[in-house]
Amino acid sequence: MADTEGYVDQAVAGLAEPQPMYKALRESTPVFRSPQAVVLSRLADIEMALKHTELFSSNMDAVDLGNVRPLIPLQIDPPEHAKYRRILDPLFTPREMAKREPRVTELVNEMIDRFVDRGECDFHEEFAVPLPCTVFLQLLGLPLEDLDQFLEWKDGVIRPEGESGYDRRHEATAPAAQQIYDYFERAIEDHIARPRDDVLSSLIDAKVEGRPLTHEEILDICFLFLIAGLDTVTDSLDCFFVYLARHPDHRHQLVEQPDILPSAIEELLRWETPVPGVVRVAMDDVEVGGCPISKGERVSPLLGAANTDPAEFPDPELVDFCRNPNRHRAFGGGPHRCLGSHLARMELRVALREFHRRIPDYEIKPGTQLTYTAALRSVESLPLTFPVPT
Ligand code: HEM
User: Fold this and answer.
1) What is the 3-state secondary structure of 264-333?
2) Measured distance CA(43)–CA(289) in Å, rounded
3) Which of 135, 299, 308, 349 is the most exposed, having the fewest neighbouring CB atoms within 10 Å of its CB?
């Protein structure tokens, strides 16, 4: 285990092209002690850490997002964790998500309508940010006027001003967190008074071990949805469109063969890994790859490194839209594997299909310097230019 400062901080902070760093880490120091966490970059170690939640927990000590109780289900360890997944999984099946696809298709086209005749857009601001947030509001049955407020709170807990990395101060995230709790408290009351066909009403009706969820449990689930389901899709859209703008051959493949979209999305998720790493806390003194880790230390399995490990992916640096098999870990692994993967895939599929149908050619505005945000790989702004369709 080495202490080569800077290395991982940059990788975890989300550089524009982190893949060479993943490779260097995996090959030189696969268990690496950075000032913030012990970073794991070998697929086998990452799989082990994600699976063994009794040794590597994602409880409240792993990340502080201003929450006052554990987020459900992420910060609940097995076996208790399973009782929540049993009620949540059925709400996010591919079948349930397919029912929402027509509305998401409309929404995506409404967004494109707003800029298509301009010949340019800020893809991040005008598409990648509002799309998942609007889908989320619809899914939970919340008023669309709350969009801007939601975006502010989400950033307040994920990217609090002046803070980065895992060692955020609770005071930095707590004010936005409290507003999120208050908002959902009111939304739950409103849904109890007037039940409807949405995820929040389903949570109110759900039974866990024969009893309804408490208010607090519903709040702790909604809070996590807000953190887990918005930024991640924004990050994926940003990363994908930067890649496709810079690789016209790959883009043409999507335009000419839309059938390959599902496997192209898996490959872009693998290569870009928009959530580059997750965080755990060691529950005991433990050794990984011959390196001692002390109880209470933070450990970060680097999903981006797992996704480019030649132990699983032949020719990992090749971006092949037909790669098969493609068992990437962009959605994590083990019991906490992403609950919203089918929702995310549907949003990404509709977005890529409709955008390329209407705007097949685009480039990043010449002279643009892309700035990637910390921890999760989105860009602060992504100006695209394209021919105005006739
Ligand atoms: C492309 C977009 C997405 C990516 C890359 C992604 C990635 C991830 C990853 C890596 C984890 C594991 C976290 C960990 O082990 O610490 C996770 C968990 C989770 N994700 Fe996603 N996610 C995405 C979209 C979504 C969406 C749209 C939702 C909406 C509900 C969602 C909800 C969740 C939840 C609730 C968990 C916690 C699951 C558990 O603890 O059992 N995600 N996601």
Assistant:
1) HHHHHHHHHCCCCECCEEECCCEEECCEEECCCCEEEEEHHHHCCCCCCCCCCCCCCCCCCCCCCCCCCC
2) 12
3) 349
The residues annotated with a catalytic role in the active site are 159, 231-232, 338-340
Pocket test for ligand 1, best of 131, 331, 343, 376 (most atoms within 8 A of CB): 331
C-alpha of residue 120 to centroid of ligand 1, in Å: 31
Question: Whose C-alpha lies nearest to ligand 1, atom 23?
Answer: 232
CA of 356 to the centre of ligand 1 (A): 26
Taking CA atoms only, the protein residue closest to ligand 1 atom 21 is 338
The pLDDT tens digits for 90-109 are: 999 999 999 999 999 999 99
- Element housing 268 (H / E): helix 261-272
Q: Is 307 in the pocket of ligand 1 (CB under 6 A)?
A: no
Q: What is the pLDDT of residues 34-87, one digit of tens each?
A: 999 999 999 999 999 999 999 999 999 998 888 899 999 999 999 999 999 999
Q: What is the rounded average pLDDT of the residues 369-386? A: 91
Task: Give the C-alpha separation, 84 to 204, whole Å.
Answer: 13
Ligand 1 mean position, distance from CA 341 (Å): 7
Residue 162 and residue 158: Cα distance in Å, rounded?
12
Q: Tens digit of pLDDT for each residue in 253-274? A: 999 999 999 999 999 999 999 9
Percent of the chain with pLDDT over 90: 84
Alpha carbon 232 to its chain's center = 3
Cα–Cα dist 254/261, whole Å: 6
Number of Cβ atoms within 10 Å of the Cβ of 95: 9
Tens of pLDDT, residues 150-168:
889 888 888 887 655 555 5
Task: State the first-to-last Cα distance of the chain, in angstroms, to the nearest integer.
Answer: 59
Longest dimension (CA), the chain: 65
User: Per DSSP, what are the bridge partners of residue 39?
Assistant: 32, 300
Residue ranges and CATH numbers for the domains of the chain are 7-385 (1.10.630.10)
Mean pLDDT of the chain: 93
Take atom 12 of ligand 1 and give the residue whose Cα is closest: 332
Centre of ligand 1 from the C-alpha of residue 339, in Å: 6
Query: In the predicted model, is pLDDT for residue 1 greater than 90?
Result: no
| The one-letter amino acid at 157 | V
